[in-house]
Amino acid sequence: MNDTTARRFSDPGICLNILKGTTYSSDESLGTNKLSLLVSRAIPNQRLVRAFGIDNGFTTFDPEKRAEFLSEARERLAEVTGYGWKEIASTAEDVAEKYVEKISPGRGEGHLECMVQIISLKVIFENFFGFNALRLGDGSMLDVARGINEQWIASKLGDHSNKLGISKIQSVFQRLQIHTEDPQSTPLNILLPVYETLWRVVLHCLIEVLFRPSSDLEWREILKALLRKPDKQQFEQRGAGVDSVSVQFLVYEALRLYPPTRRIYGQMHMSTIPEPELIAADIETCHRLPEIWGDDSHQYHPGRWNSVNRHMRKAFMPFGGPPYQCPASVSFGPMMIGVLVAALASELSPTVWRLSYGEKRSVSRVLDDEMELDPGRSKKTSWFLLRESRDMGSHQSHSDE
């Protein structure tokens, strides 16, 4: 089954019905979906079972296993936040600082996507699996990131014989003495959804907040305030101006433009149609409909959340929708995105770094206000950080654990 064959729908009401597993049309003559929601959602996700050897709440056909997965996921999230956001923010700051220190002063450039991937994974490995983030090698984390991406792309293309990506992941896990043999207990059951929820949104939020020519200095100030006091109150605290925003608004706007899952798939077999069909709720397009979000719907404008209306609330579904909404959607996911963006922003002052985009630095272009960011997984171009100042302090080598 190839995702490109899916029929896509972006109307908010229809998207919500697809997420409920009931129908993809307002035409009642189609009847109802003969498959349960669990089965509808699990069928297109079987590619992830073949690709990664996982068995979790997104892939199982067993209601009891799904309930167990959700219960464990909620317990894990509660346990992680129980450590305190202060500790999580401190870890993120330390990891970001160490990474920037290692960028060669002679070459003066860094690969932004790799930086965000590595730091996201280190924070996840420490807080979900008990590793010391500062002792995890950058090379190992990058192998995991690349392995996930390569394996994910192969699975979407239906290339189930491609095991290069999973081999990279397993090689790192073996060095870290992590066991992945049992599909029900492999850490990938948790790592995949958490990592995929976080890193790409963090990347795009960071670019929008720091490097757009039109970015607001106040945005950087409220991110600094979140690092000093990383809690829900500060996350939701707006600045002092009339049209000021909060870190929550910065994150929500990134989630709107760059949802973690651009399209959510379901297999539906309507009672009046002979064959089942692969259907997609096109969340990305839904989040950019001008009739709902305005003429600037393709632009990053956090101030829109000061006057959000019921149509916007209905159309905003970055973590899916009921009854299978992501457990991280209420507070953990947005807060973790905000903390990671704040930690990275603290090390990447636009007065020291500028951003360019291309296949390589020599043919790159500089980000402007009109350029749309490409959220695609298989793009061949990258974001490069270019140093404007050489005053970076100490530099040190770093080896894998």
Rg from Cα:
21 Å
Widest β-sheet, arrangement of strands? 2-7-5-6
Tally of contiguous helical segments? 16
Terminal Cα span: 39 Å
* Class from secondary-structure proportions: alpha+beta
Shape: globular
**N-to-C series of helices and strands:** EHHHHHEHHHHHHHEEHHHHEEE
Total E-strand runs: 7
- Spans of at least 5 consecutive residues whose pLDDT stays below 50 are 391-401
Biggest sheet, in brief? 4 strands, antiparallel
Mean pLDDT figure: 89
Helix content: 40-55%
Strand content: 5-15%
Task: Please provide a brief summary of the model.
With 401 residues, the protein is α+β, with helices and mostly antiparallel strands. Helices cover 47% and strands 8% of the residues. The chain contains 16 helices and 7 strands.
Account of the protein in words:
The protein is α+β, with helices and mostly antiparallel strands and 401 residues long. Helices cover 47% and strands 8% of the residues. It starts with 6 loop residues before the first strand and ends in a 14-residue tail after the last strand. The strands form two sheets. A four-stranded antiparallel beta sheet has the order 2-7-5-6. The protein has a three-stranded mixed beta sheet with strand order 1-4-3. The longest helix has 24 residues, at 188-211. 40% of the residues are buried. It has helices at residues 12-20, 37-42, 46-52, 63-82, 85-101, 112-129, 138-156, 164-175, 188-211, 217-228, 232-236, 247-257, 283-286, 290-293, 310-315, 332-347, and strands spanning 7-9, 109-111, 263-268, 277-282, 353-358, 365-366, 382-387. The chain has 16 helices and seven strands. Residues 391-401 have low confidence and may be disordered. A hairpin with an 8-residue loop joins β3 and β4. α9 (188-211) packs across α12 and α9 crosses α16.
